[in-house]
Input
Amino acid sequence: MDNNRHGYADNGSGADMVKGTLYRILEKPLNYARRKSPWILHLDTGGCNGCAIETFAILSPRYDMERFGALSKGNPRHADILVISGAVSRKIKPMLKRIYEQTPEPKVVMAIGSCAITKGVFHDSYNIVGPLDRIMPVDVYVPGCPPKPEAIFDGMLRAIEKFREKVEK
Amino acid sequence: MIQEIFNIIVYPGLLFTVVLSLVYSGILRKLAARMQSRIGPPVWQPFLDIIKLFGKEEITPEQAKPGFGFWPFVAFASILIAALLTPVAGMVSLDSGNFIVLIYFLVFSPACLYLAGLASSNPYAVVGSIRGLVQMFSYEIIFVVSLVVPMLFVNSLEPLVINNYQLGSGWIASSFPLAAAAFLVAVLAKLELPPFHTPEAHQEIVSGYYTEYSGFRLALIEMTHIVKIFVLLSLAVAVFFGGSGDPLIFIIKTLALLILLSVIRVVLARFRIDHVLKFCWILGVIALIDLIRVLMV
Output
């Protein structure tokens, strides 16, 4: 489907014209709000769970992701940033595609850890299907095995900046 | 005429209610964060969340039943009408309702959300809706029984009359503490705040009845929750906690209740759905004691 920059399919009906006009007027506050309220979906695609634990650390009081307005959602339909860690196994590949499609536009994908970026130690496994960016477009890479919570945080802030590139152009 | 329209649209009607309830929701989140020794989001964070959700793509599942797009609007509209009927700082914006209408709209709004959950035909949403309906069964009884106590005591069905009665002659909560306590628990259950967030239980059933919603309609559902906090707090102040004549007293009292709610929210864990039922029935008995007392006066 050909989406315009606000994620709405514009098929020329009256309602879409009204929506389009409204979004042109409200563009500035909307873009500000997008940067200030990124809701994340964390997904572990299979692996050693190390990256998952480090990702959960940024939800904890010590790092406190919520001071940037971010919330952890267990639901792709509510999420803005997909945080995906672990090697992509054959079983999870169709689910992963589905989750990507269920996430509403505009969205940003983060790949956490060596396994998601390059398959890591699983590079010659029969069961691991390619790095994450063979399956979906990835915007931010956070390398490490596992990356420190600070690094994931930095990745999240870069992902927020990606909204600027994606939406504002 | 102009005064009436101003009352409905600006103060103490829609604009005032929506803005203040968004701020209250932000305060609730900030307080929870501070109690968990986090920094927490800024107080205006709910504004940003809602604005962001308005600009997101909407996804309608293929299996969705006809009411899917429709019920969130009805839920939001009915909670706004309930807000107009609730006394805010000694004023009611819509001067043509009484408790019966108010209770009706306060029941109708969550019922619409549960219907929305059933219409989205997602297994998690259906489980969430059914849990919500069961929970409704348990808390509505306490809610109505404890609300009947001040109605019978003041002998009026108008919220504003009860509000003004308390301005002259003390808090109803001091003469009927059991009913007031039961009312507060019912408020907590109606708001689906912990320990009563069973219908949306994030660790068990994704997001409960609004699992399938995204974008604009999700924003409406969030707004329904947020406005409901404000409506029920102002109702509690008007009916049990001394009423309020001017905005300052009103804001102080509702904020005090909000702090109480946020402490409970941080401290307690979630009830299982059958525990909710048992707990609420016991509280119903407690509220009945005060009902019998007021009938004997």
